[in-house]
Amino acid sequence: MIPLFNPFPIVCADLRRNRLLVLVTLLLVALSVAAGIAVISQERALRQGSARAADDFDLLVGAPGSPTQLVLTAVYLRPQATPLLDGDILEKASSTRGVKYAAPIAFGDNWQGYPIIGTIADFANRGGKLMPTEGRVFRQRGEAVIGAAVKLPLGATLSPQHGLHHDDDDDDGDHPDHAHAAMHYTVVGRLPPRHNIWDNAILVPVEDVWAVHGLPDGHGINDAQRIGPPWNAARLPGVPAIVIKPDSIAAAYGLRGQFRNPRSIALFPAEVLNDLYLTLGNVRDLMSVLALTTQVLVVAAVLMALLVGFLARRRQFAVLRAMGASRRYVFCVVWIEVALLIVGGAVLGLLLGFGASMLLSHWLQAQTGFAMPVSLGASEGFLVGGLVLAGGLIGMLPAWLAFRRSIAEGLTVG
Amino acid sequence: MSGALQVRDLSLRFSGQQHALFEIPTLEVRPGSSLGIRGPSGAGKTTLFHCLAGIAQPSAGQIRWGDTDICNKDAQALDRWRHRQVGLIFQDFHLIDGLSVLDNVLLPAHFDAWRPAAQLRQRARELLAEVGITAFDRMAAVLSRGERQRVAFARALLFQPAIVMADEPTASLDPDHRSRVGDLLLALARAQGATLIVISHEHELLSRMDRNMTLQDGRLI
């Protein structure tokens, strides 16, 4: 039977005596782990958040150009000099077989920084799947349904300002400013949170956006108050993007092929995101290698410090042995001290990294409205587990040296 | 009588050296008596001390403490023997600064138990009181040298060892304390009925031993 012993009085005394060294070691290990955790969890959060934001956009159609630009424009509301699709393509998309709805996405205005997006009611409620938490979606011109994060009550009225953002003051001179002032939207509904930039959007009938900018409204002269399809192709202005909801997966692929032609591009946002993820993945891999290198360096530095500490304490271990402590006892004292530092640093680093990642996501969400759900996954587990395992093994080196050393030799150390 | 020492044909020769550091044909110490060993620096006193305490292995010979031949015991058995039968005292005390006075005395009890038994804790307090230390919770780091050595005495006597061995126990103390600490060591060992072996240069301390021997030129005379 192995006799029970208690190495913790010595371990605690040693850690107490070397408070500064313990603190510095814990911080070094913790910071190196935190950096790795933050990189991995942020990359995953960005991936999950961006994928979630694209859930509402089955098939995107835009003018020929950059697919990434089209996704950034329509999904993440980051338009930059987006070329316009010819209006008749919207009419064609709306009337094509296999399409549940084809929604124009028209930008250009904001209210106090909240982007005003012209679209159709079917997109606002995602074909009836997204029920407003308050009120209803717009049914007529002059009505607006707002995202969950827009600070307006139902019944409030607002006038659009030109520009997608509050501080945009570009005036291209091709629209009458007085038309903005004359336009009033009444808030009739609030959508549930989507945890993306669309929570900040004010959705209005696309006809109003066109009218404010002096463009035809897509309907006949006698249908001035009509909203949504069917459209009059001859009176449709250009649109930056069309979101198509296909009625089946097969239809989605068919429609993508159909609208991939010299006049338009069609894509699944997931395709573009996959390319982005590949790039992100490469960056993540690079950052992971850097984090791992940092950890290896930190562990090496810790090992050196511990070996120096061990050499300085050879006599203490010899005295313990001389007083009757077994080799196992001294081995445990040394190993537990090293393992505690590494495990403590790893756990602290895990908490620090997770906390930093949460703060960063929170800040990014506040800045962009883009939710980045932070979670801990297997990669972080492997990172921390690997370090703990390495620490456990590293701790064995000085412990083994203490185990093997002769007592007389240790007692004669000056 | 585990405190009776019998040495036969003991010698220690370092590898590569022609002459033995010491050769001791015979040495006997009665249980409960005291033996002082002196000698010039480098004579091998500390190495002899280590051999007698089972810390170092001699090149040849036999060391018996009572019925125990410590030259033929494995490391684990020697650890257990030292733990229970030998109280060691060093010149530099070797207290653990991060522990209280009481925890320092109880430290050896953690070598084979998770928590010292209540009677052992009580004995530690009594020993500390005997050596004149009553602030049990004071940290060892703040003690004077004299106080540290007295705590080291208490630690060495925790398990009522049959053998107490001290290597230069008063060398680190100022002259005022030497005499008092020396008296205390002798008194404690006698009160416990322990065999006391002291390595020292201190004439005053050695003069109070039952017997004194000198290690010189490899001979103990």
Structure description:
The complex is a heterodimer of chains A (414) and B (221). Chain A has 414 residues and is an alpha+beta fold. Helices cover 52% and strands 13% of the residues of chain A. Chain A has helices at 8-17, 19-53, 67-74, 87-94, 121-124, 177-182, 206-212, 249-258, 269-312, 314-322, 327-368, 378-404, 407-411, and strands at 59-62, 99-111, 114-119, 134-135, 143-146, 157-158, 161-162, 185-190, 202-205, 241-246, 265-267. In chain A, helix 1 crosses helix 11 (327-368), helix 2 (19-53) packs antiparallel against helix 9 and helix 11 packs antiparallel against helix 12 (378-404). Chain A starts with 7 loop residues before the first helix and ends with a helix. In chain B, strand 9 (211-216) and strand 10 (219-220) form a beta hairpin. Chain B contains seven helices and ten strands. Chain B has 221 residues and is of the alpha/beta class.
Which residue ranges of chain B are poorly predicted, with pLDDT under 50 across at least 5 consecutive positions? none
CATH architecture of chain B: 3-Layer(aba) Sandwich
Secondary-structure element string of chain B: EEEHEEHEHHHEHEHEE
Element string of chain A (H = helix, E = strand): HHEHHEEHEEEEHEEHEHEHHHHH
Q: Per the principal axes of the C-alpha atoms, what is the gross shape of chain B?
A: globular
Distance between the termini of chain A: 37 Å
Our count of helices of chain B gives 7
Tell me the distance between the termini of chain B: 25 Å
- General form of chain A: elongated
Structure summary, number of beta strands of chain B: 10
Compute the number of strand runs of chain A: 11
Determine the mean pLDDT of chain B: 91
At the fold tier of CATH, the topology name of chain B is Rossmann fold
Oligomer: heterodimer
Q: From the alpha-carbon coordinates, what is the Rg of chain A to the nearest angstrom?
A: 32 Å
Q: Helix segment count of chain A?
A: 13
Which structural class is indicated by helix and strand composition of chain A? Answer: alpha+beta
- Largest interface, and how many residues on either side? A-B, 29 and 33 residues
Strand content of chain B: 15-25%
- Which structural class fits the helix and strand makeup of chain B? alpha/beta
Summed over residues and divided by their number, the pLDDT of chain A gives a mean of 85
